[in-house]
Amino acid sequence: MDKYIIRRNNKGIVWFTINRPEKRNAIDYEVMDGLSETISEVKNNQSDKVFVITGIGEKAFCSGGDLAAFQNLMTKEDAYKMLSKMGEILYSLATLEKPTVALLNGLAIGGGCELATACDYRLAFRESRFGFVQGRLGITTGWGGATLLLERVSTDKALQMLLTGNIYTAVEGKDLGYINHILSKDLPNNECEEYISKQIIHNTKVIEAYKKVVNRKWVATQLKQRMFREIEECSVLWASDEHHQAVSSFMNKNN
Ligand SMILES: CC[C@@H](C(=O)O)C(=O)SCCNC(=O)CCNC(=O)[C@H](O)C(C)(C)COP(=O)(O)OP(=O)(O)OC[C@H]1O[C@@H](n2cnc3c(N)ncnc32)[C@H](O)[C@@H]1OP(=O)(O)O
Fold it and tell me: Fewer beta carbons within 10 angstroms: which end of the chain, N or C?
């Protein structure tokens, strides 16, 4: 079974669906590579207009990094290699000069929230939940997601989400300014495409020009450097006993 599915519709919308329902759509190296290649394709392909990321099924959008695949990363150097690989991908997603959408079809947890945060829009089913739970594993957001979150919601809301590690409902997410729109579950992909067609109405050149404005602000405020400082700090925590024990107890509970 392919770990991700790519579909293009005739309106230039490119759908990237993480296809690992048995792992709650966790991200391993193969999914990372798929995301990276697809982002490059969307960037270079003139007929690709909008990039949408979602997860298969109704349980999870994405449960973050694949804790089984990454549990052998013991040192901060090993952790940094993996975390910075995904950090590069999230930076290229955030700065893509085409609109990007995360469709939260279910739980977005840990790195799953970071992936959603890198997108311009976050749409969610009413039943979807999300939370930056990394603190429970003795680490911080390891893919640069806290830095990105500060670009999406106010500082006090971002800190609230990060420091509590609470799991929020889609409605709470809308109040926090994190979720842009709530979808019904009936025909979510159609509703998502309808939302996109109402929100993103201008021609490609206009859209690209506005995204360049955002990107210039991010270059000036050193978004990438800030994300990578965050990644370095997480790498140190990753190497701690507290983190390794938390991962072991998650893996043992699930085995
Ligand atoms: C690495 C980067 C870092 C970051 O920068 O943020 C991270 O992302 S760290 C990872 C953060 N994510 C988590 O801590 C989530 C861990 N998962 C859960 O808490 C729960 O699984 C769930 C997502 C709340 C879903 O719960 P539930 O519906 O009850 O399902 P199960 O717990 O039974 O899981 C089913 C199945 O999926 C496996 N699984 C789930 N999440 C992951 C994951 N992140 N990595 C690897 N595997 C995961 C789980 O082990 C079960 O597998 P089996 O036991 O083989 O059925």
Answer: C
- Determine the residue of 230, 252, 254, 255 to mutate for testing ligand 1's pocket, defined as the one with the most ligand atoms within 8 A of the Cβ atom: 254
User: Does residue 26 have its Cβ closer than 6 Å to ligand 1?
Assistant: yes
CB of 111 shorter than 6 A to ligand 1: yes
Q: How many domains does the chain have?
A: 1
Q: Do the domain assignments include residue 79?
A: yes
**Is 249 within a domain?**
no
Task: Indicate whether this model's pTM tops 0.95.
Answer: yes
The pLDDT of residue 254 is 62
Beta partners for residue 53, in sequence order: 16, 102
pLDDT for 145 equals 98
Buried b (16+ CB within 10 A) or exposed e, 102-133: bbbbbbbbbbbbbbbbbbbbbbbbeebbbbbb
CA of 127 to the centre of ligand 1 (A): 18
Tokens of 87: 């950090």
Which atom belonging to ligand 1 lies closest to the Cα atom of 69?
Answer: 46
Question: Which SS3 state, helix, strand or coil, does residue 131 take?
Answer: strand
Mean pLDDT of the chain: 96
Give the CATH number of the domain where residue 167 resides: 3.90.226.10
**Measuring CA to CA, which residue among 32, 34, 99, 21 is closest to residue 62?**
21
Asked whether residue 230 is assigned to any structural domain, the reply reads no
Among candidates 201, 245, 197, which has minimal Cα distance to 13?
Answer: 197
* Residue 204 domain flag: no
